[in-house]
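Q: Hi! First time asking for a complex rather than a single chain. Here are the components, and I think there are two in total. Is that enough to go on?
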Amino acid sequence: MHSTAEFQEKVKQIFSQIDLDAEPRELYEPISYTLGLGGKRIRPLLLLMACDMFGGDLNDALNPAIGFEIFHNFTLLHDDIMDQSPIRRGKETVYKKWNTNIAILSGDAMFALAYKYLIKTNEKVLPSLLTVFNQTALEVCEGQQFDMNYETMEKVSIGDYIKMIRLKTAVLLAGSLKAGAIIGGADSTDADHLYSFGENIGLAFQLKDDLLDVFGDEAVFGKRTGSDIVCNKKTFLYLKAFELAKGETLKQLEELFSSVGTDNETKIRKIKNIYSELGVEHFAEEAMDNYHSNALTHLQTIKVGTEQKQALTEFSTQLMKREK
Amino acid sequence: MHSTAEFQEKVKQIFSQIDLDAEPRELYEPISYTLGLGGKRIRPLLLLMACDMFGGDLNDALNPAIGFEIFHNFTLLHDDIMDQSPIRRGKETVYKKWNTNIAILSGDAMFALAYKYLIKTNEKVLPSLLTVFNQTALEVCEGQQFDMNYETMEKVSIGDYIKMIRLKTAVLLAGSLKAGAIIGGADSTDADHLYSFGENIGLAFQLKDDLLDVFGDEAVFGKRTGSDIVCNKKTFLYLKAFELAKGETLKQLEELFSSVGTDNETKIRKIKNIYSELGVEHFAEEAMDNYHSNALTHLQTIKVGTEQKQALTEFSTQLMKREK
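A: Yes, that's all I need. Here is the structure of the assembled complex.
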């Protein structure tokens, strides 16, 4: 068994070995740049931990782990075009630094590259590994489309929101874990439980993201809070607030989220106050804890010893407790 | 052995069975629309013919054939955004009919979908099938990037152009054929010869495209000729003309291709005249015939009987003789 730090070191190491010294540079430079932006590398970590949990050979898991992370970064690259986000991880996004065409195409190339790494593994697992990956990739696209739809949709329920974040975020964590389980030699029941573990962790993870964006400690969070509020993003907090608010509070919420005049600082402050008044933070935390606890139930069901599950148990708890 | 018409019928049939009745509709409708635009379906035809040539089971080839065609259509969808082309096959392109975000995302989903179909085949061939497909997909992106680079590059040689069309067009025909060979049980030498056959056919195919765009008979071609001239596209004809032209003719060419004032009809007429004067049409035909003949040499080397090669021999000759 390896510690989280050891897995992290392993992931860092394999990432430093990716060779993107190819032509045309206009295609490969944005890929190097994107992969060099860093990030938490959660998906490859989960994949390695899952493989290790079943006693699998980590060497079979390294390249697929890179594949999942390249895929994730590809989706961010294309999302940034669609959302017109100029900054990612403190640096200019690809479409801003280069242009939209280069961002579209280098994203496409990353998708192909993800598959190149994905299939460098034990041939026996390819059919199930690819089935998980393909389904996940398609669902992530579905999630992004729902997300875009919701921007202009009048009525979005919390159920709609959960469906969207399940597709956009949770299935990729779940898919990484299931891929690791498959490579590690898990039977299909265990692999499916690990998938469900990941799905629930993913939902909790996104709720934590929603919470941090509003209630995070800026000094630790590393960026300004309130960006979801400024963009009128229909997060769990937003939707819960509209579900709970009545009378004057509801009117205020509606005005604040439709106003273009209010300056951002005032808007954030007023909405945070309403959120606190309504207690939406606690509803979000409760939902998050429920998903986390569902996740752990699935993990417990898996037929390996507690010690083998330790890395994933600890890591998932860390994700829930994180302050950035 | 089957006839070209039988293969075409088979391809038509499997295409009519693709199920895209999923949510969100904003993601899947543009995919249905794109796949419904038709086209020559050359890549799936080549894949089936290749499989059949080696006596393979066509049922193993049907889904991968769809996979290659979905991939091809995905690249067209994204190319249309990058090239800002409003019309494809007589209909509005996806980014025009919907919007750029939907075009980016439904393209991404098509890429994932291509893989879903690709892997529905005999599991034993998956590693080699995926290796060919991944490499091809990456090279097609490289080709598109070179194509975009050439738009603003001062000096493009015919060698550069051939490298670009090899990547952008030829490798996908080659990859489809090699995939068919692999599924059909060919040994690697034969599969590689079929790949080279496809590469050469692909280059000849693109030169034929360049020729038809300028010298095609509009009544048969089905659309206006001269669109490459209007866009100042650096085709084989353009590059050969600049290579050969001297003095007054060179000056005229430079003026015509840099002018924004000249009306399109006059520009097309004048450039066609210069092309004819310089004989670039014949150089293009000669190059095309050379590639075709190289292709046939590779086909002849393959260790199956002449009868088994008939479908591909005939089909490649048809592609060279086509008037649209």
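A: Chain A has a mean pLDDT of 96. Let me know if you'd like any chain examined more closely.
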